[in-house]
């Protein structure tokens, strides 16, 4: 369900449907980090930054190595003028995956 919701959001086929599908996925199986990531992604695309932060934080609680969630949450923190929090997330990704180019670039852009 969350994959379909993500697809709806990325293809701009209906944000309400995308949010509903992703929300249902986390209600049915809230223990799957990928569902929380996709829900956070769709919330972010729908300009719900606070909801996205909560969903991405839950994703990272369930799977600390979920790099895409960490990068997206870092970007949200940057947009909110909180570079210190963004830096910590990028550094965390690099602790797990030292050669992760997008995290390296994001961290370099903060400096």
Number of domains: 2
Q: Provide the CATH superfamily of the largest domain.
A: Tetratricopeptide repeat domain
- Fraction of helical residues: over 70%
Distance between the termini: 39 Å
Walk me through what this model shows.
Helices cover 78% and strands 0% of the residues. By secondary structure, the protein is mainly α. Helix 1 runs parallel beside helix 3 (33-45) and helix 3 packs antiparallel against helix 4 (49-62). The protein starts with a helix and ends with a helix. The mean pLDDT is 93.
Summarize the structure.
Helices cover 78% and strands 0% of the residues. It has helices at residues 2-10, 15-28, 33-45, 49-62, 67-79, 83-96, 101-110. The chain is globular.
Task: Tag the structure with descriptive keywords.
2 domains; mainly alpha; Serine Threonine Protein Phosphatase 5, Tetratricopeptide repeat; 111 residues
Summarize the helices and strands and which ones pair or pack.
Elements: H1 2-10, H2 15-28, H3 33-45, H4 49-62, H5 67-79, H6 83-96, H7 101-110
